[in-house]
Amino acid sequence: MVQAAFELVGPPTSSYVQRHWRVILLTLSAAAIASGWLLHGTSPLTVLRSSRLCYALGCNAPRRLLFRGSLISLPGRAEPLTLRGFNIVLKHGEAGLDHVTRQDRLVFKLLPHTSLVRLVVNHWADDVTAPGADCYDDAAEDFLRPECLALLEEAVSWVTEAGAFAVITARSALAAGDAGANASVFENVTLRMHWVRMWGAVARRFASTDNIAGYEVT
Length: 218
Prior knowledge:
Blueprint: E1 2-9, H1 15-35, H2 44-57, E2 66-68, E3 71-73, E4 82-89, H3 102-105, H4 107-110, E5 116-123, H5 146-161, E6 165-171, H6 174-178, H7 189-205, E7 212-216
Parallel strand pairs: 4-5, 5-6, 6-7
Antiparallel strand pairs: 1-4, 2-3
């Protein structure tokens, strides 16, 4: 289900946009931690520099957006890029939202200049999922329900094959604090370990996939 259309232009000018721009950059840093870059002693900056060098040399690094301060550009291009796109919500266990529908696939024809899609697919420790449908499963490998990963793979393939960039987004209201005291990833050590491991698995799964713009982790 498509929720909203948006346009992201760099550099931001208003103080409101600048504040939210910083949130985006912090989210990317958090995703770097989840993917294991920092845990293995390599900084995200080093990884990004290596990626840019790889593009320059023509090796097989996945296609990624380049960030230079507040400017966003495509690999090998100097001019700032305008990102236009929409949000879409998919949800395991809910009829009509548990796959990319024919109507969903028509959106790229309705919005032919789409270059970025925010995929709200990973409902992990969330408060709007049906019983037994939450993506968090403490008995599953990497604490992620396999059906949710399969749905995410379907959504990412749809977006990237259309030539757009994908932001992989989690909705984790309970894990973010709605479940009460000592029940969030900020206070509950066990849940935080499960959360980091889950995001590490997701990041590894899409590490070599073209057109991943970033991860919105909670």
